[in-house]
Write a structure and sequence with these properties.
mainly alpha; toxin-antitoxin system; HepT-like_sf; nuclease
Length: about 90
């Protein structure tokens, strides 16, 4: 497997988990964090999963370089907010 293929599979996994989180929270959590284009994250997962031959290497590279850092920051913020909410319920 090439590095590119590995990166694409990781992006697919990220999209899959974003979709699961959205479903499990009845689409209530992710809209609180509009700085990430969640629909596009899920859409990219769908392209990778169902139209692999249509995957554009340059778009994947741009996603990794430009969009993953803000996604990571937002996910860390979500975790922090959830932990804070859980602590306040104790």
């Amino acid at each position: 497997m090439t590095i590119f293929d590995s990166c694409v599979m990781r992006l697919q996994t990220i999209g899959e988990y974003v979709k699961k989180i959205d479903d499990k929270t009845n689409k209530q959590l992710l809209p609180k964090y509009p700085q990430v284009p969640w629909v596009k994250v899920i859409g990219q997962r769908n392209i990778i999963s169902h139209e692999y031959s249509a995957v554009d290497e340059e778009k994947i590279f741009i996603t990794i370089k430009k969009h993953l850092p803000p996604l990571k920051s937002t996910v860390l913020l979500i975790i922090k907010d959830i932990e804070k909410d859980l602590d306040s319920q104790e």
